[in-house]
Amino acid sequence: MTVVNDPQSPMYIPEKNREIARERAAERKSRIKGYLEVRDSIPTGTNRRERTEKSKARILEILGGTGDDWNDHRWHIGNVIKDTSTLSRILDLNDKEVAEIEKAARLCRWAVSPYYASLIDPSNRSCPVYMQSIPTSREYIEKGTEDHYAIKYNSPAPLITRLYPDRLIINVTNICAMFCRHCLRKKDISSKDMIYSRDNVRAALDYIASSPEIRDVLLTGGDALALPDNYLDWILGELDDIRHVEIKRLGSRMLATLPQRVTPELCGMLARHKPVYLNTQFNSPMEITPEAETAVDRLIGAGVIVGNQSVLLRGINNDVNVMKKLVHELVRIRVRPYYIFNCKKLEGIRHFRVPVSDGLNIIENLRGYTSGLAVPTFIITAPEGRGKTPMAPAYLLNYNRNGKLLFRTWAGDVCEYEDELLDE
Ligand code: SF4
Q: Among 114, 195, 227, 285, which residue has the fewest nearby CB atoms (within 10 Å)?
């Protein structure tokens, strides 16, 4: 007799109960039937590898690079694609597309790393990677607004943005491996690349040193990994010397746009500054490639905790199944889905916006339907720099403090729950 068939065993289940459990399991499975039907057809950076390899070969030929160059982030930075004649050779652009790109570029420049360009499906203008990297006429047709307040009244010292009680940002550069078309900080991209000087960073560090309540400092920009290793090393070392700074965070999208930047040398340096967290931005499962996975492995090997902050984008990830695939791919490569941001109503990016209900619907279809580890928090940023505000479907239906809560479960069952009453 095996242990589970022994009525004395804590794992013993009578057959009639097992039958009920099988029915319940079948009912649970039926709740993700729609996802299971499409799951394997959703493009990812792994299952579209063959096409990506072809694009890579074509791009290397056009740019005159080698396989070794491809693995060198400096080659990608030196060969960033930012003119329509090169892009046309890679993506077979027509005249109208070229004209639109050039007109949109007058409002906000564009650039894309050869690596990220290799992820584009050249035959599909609705490709999520194309839409994130190549400008279209919608950037200048659709009007948005500006939130000047956020920067104007929230920078108590040079390069600093401070919105919260115990943490703040140092904006170290405006450089990125590509200029995302949906970027919330498009105004920072400006017309030229800038790495801010040590004097400016020194002033920011002095502010932090004189603010003992600051325990968490985020270096971002731009992209924190656009800084050379030695400059980043210096800033992290200075922060290590401020005793009340408990953690350092890096904001970098390079895991998605140029994962070759995550070199063993960079990771060796980061390992000396524990604890370091890195928040990146994967918005599409197509961005999760073997190269991205290698970058994450290296960071984790160096003790860096990696999280992901997606932006909810029309036609890119505002679909329950695509977002589910994205969070599954993230946890598979050991990146914790952390936030989904609602896109702001800003000039040049408004066409990416979707109703807040799309975000709520995504969370509704993740919570309970997949591991809690894979469920990010959906955030809208309050106007005038008032901070990130979580939005969640309503689970609590009634809380009248008479000892009972009325709530619904992820599966829609309405339940009562006995609360603990305070002693009179
Ligand atoms: S990498 Fe980040 S900061 Fe840079 S353009 Fe993209 S979204 Fe904006």
A: 195
Output the residue whose Cα is nearest ligand 1's atom 7.
183
Cβ within 8 Å of residue 393, ≥6 positions away: 360, 363, 364, 367
Say how many Å lie between the CA of residue 177 and the centre of ligand 1: 8
Give the pLDDT confidence score for residue 189 in this predicted structure.
75
Helix or strand (DSSP H, E) at 237 = helix 229-240
Q: What are the pLDDT digits (tens) for 278-321?
A: 999 999 999 999 999 999 999 999 999 999 999 999 999 999 99
Phi and psi, residue 64, nearest 5°: 70, 40
Q: Which tens digits make up the pLDDT trace of 219-259? A: 998 999 999 999 999 999 999 999 999 999 999 999 999 99
- CB environment 52-87: b (16+ within 10 A), e (fewer): beebbebbbebbebeeebbeebebbbebbbeebebb
Mutate to test the pocket of ligand 1, among 77, 180, 309, 344 (most ligand atoms within 8 A of CB): 180
Residue 312 Cα to ligand 1 middle (Å):
14
E strand intervals along 135-211? 160-161, 167-171
- Smallest CA separation from ligand 1 atom 5, residue: 179
- What span, in angstroms and rounded, lies between the C-alpha atoms of 314 and 352? 5
Ligand 1 atom nearest the C-alpha of 182 is 7
Contact between 307 and 335 (Cβ < 8 Å)? yes
Question: From CA 46, how far away is CA 44, in angstroms rounded?
Answer: 5
- Residue 4: predicted pLDDT: 84
Residue 368 has pLDDT above 90, yes or no: yes
Q: Would you say the CB of residue 311 lies under 6 angstroms from ligand 1? A: no
Does the beta carbon of 253 sit less than 6 angstroms from any atom of ligand 1? Answer: yes
Among the CATH numbers 2.70.40.10, 1.25.40.10, 3.40.30.10, 3.20.20.70, which is that of 149-391? 3.20.20.70
State the pLDDT at residue 384. 83
C-alpha distance from residue 15 to each of 2, 9, 21, 29, 64 (Å): 15, 14, 10, 21, 68
Instruction: Please tell me the distance between residue 257's alpha carbon and the centre of ligand 1 in angstroms.
Output: 10
Gap between the Cα atoms of 266 and 258, Å rounded: 14
Is this model's pTM higher than 0.90 or not? yes
